[in-house]
């Protein structure tokens, strides 16, 4: 069984926004960055000695434009099919994230005012429609797509056979990736309690590292300690009726 290597592809800054290259029998790209970053990702893939025309699949982890903004462009550049979860078809087809954004704290409240988050980007239709756990062996990597709803209804992560979890926005580094190694919520979650449940479910699979959309890789034990504190914090907010979550109807 071939081992799958996870290679970060910086899209903005050194670690502020990441895509990932999975290297196995064939390469797979996870996430497509912000609008207009398709060529940058393409060139970084080539810089790692990979012919972009050999890319077998582009996995989009969820329906926010810093993760699917260049999916259509990257599809044209590489010819690779795109995989996305059925529950985020609305954003993929509209080219817009669901709004309003639901901030997880002060950073999210500040970022929600940015016009760049409210853009319409080029839409796409997933070629591979994810509805549940999906093996990627046929695409050349020893890995599986794992539904991890909560950040958005259709959020997914990718777990490799060697235990690397490419986690999208299931968890992030503090201050939108600026404080490396420190677990934190990303700026927004559609359903904080559901997202935390997804995170704890992935941690129960004993990943070796968590590779995130914003920041450097995270140590699982440190994330576990953070998740325990977050569980207590959310319980207090829930008891006070202060948790905002997007309803199923609004996510459709």
What does this molecule look like?
This protein has 252 residues and is an alpha/beta fold. It has helices spanning 38-47, 65-68, 71-78, 89-94, 106-111, 174-177, 192-203, 220-239, 248-251, and strands at residues 5-12, 17-23, 27-30, 57-59, 82-85, 128-130, 134-135, 143-147, 156-160, 164-166, 172-173, 179-184, 209-211. The strands form three sheets. Strands 1-2-3-4-5-6 form a six-stranded mixed beta sheet, covered by helices on one side. It has a five-stranded mixed beta sheet with strand order 7-8-9-10-13, with no helix packed on it. Helix 1 links the parallel strand 3 and strand 4. Helix 1 (38-47) crosses helix 3 and helix 7 (192-203) packs antiparallel against helix 8 (220-239). It is globular. It starts with a strand and ends with a helix. The mean pLDDT is 95.
Number of strands: 13
Quick check: average pLDDT? 95
Structural class: alpha/beta
Secondary-structure element string: EEEHEHHEHHEEEEEEHEHEHH
Helix content: 25-40%
What is the terminal separation in angstroms?
39 Å
Output the number of helix runs: 9
Major beta-sheet overview? 6 strands, mixed
């Amino acid at each position: 069984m071939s081992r799958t290597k996870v290679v970060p592809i910086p899209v903005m800054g050194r670690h502020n926004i990441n895509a990932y290259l999975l290297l196995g029998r064939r390469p797979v790209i996870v996430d497509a960055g912000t609008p207009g970053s398709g060529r940058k990702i393409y060139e970084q893939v080539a810089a790692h000695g990979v012919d972009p025309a050999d890319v077998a699949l582009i996995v989009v982890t969820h329906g926010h434009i810093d993760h699917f903004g260049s999916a259509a462009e990257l599809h044209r550049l590489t010819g690779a099919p795109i995989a996305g979860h059925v529950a985020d078809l609305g954003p993929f087809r509209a080219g817009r994230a669901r709004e309003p954004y639901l901030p997880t704290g002060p950073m999210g409240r500040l970022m929600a005012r940015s016009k760049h988050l409210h853009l319409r980007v080029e839409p796409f239709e997933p070629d591979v429609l994810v509805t549940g756990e999906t093996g990627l062996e046929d695409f050349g990597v020893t890995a599986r797509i794992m539904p991890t709803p909560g950040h958005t209804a259709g959020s997914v992560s990718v777990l490799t056979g060697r235990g690397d979890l490419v986690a999208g926005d299931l968890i992030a580094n503090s201050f939108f990736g600026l404080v490396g190694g420190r677990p934190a919520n990303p700026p927004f979650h559609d359903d904080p309690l559901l997202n935390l449940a997804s995170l704890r479910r992935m941690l129960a699979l004993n990943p070796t590292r968590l590779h995130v959309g914003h920041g450097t890789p995270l140590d699982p034990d440190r994330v576990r300690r953070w998740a325990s504190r977050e569980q207590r914090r959310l319980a207090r907010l829930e008891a006070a009726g202060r948790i905002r979550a997007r309803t199923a109807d609004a996510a459709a």
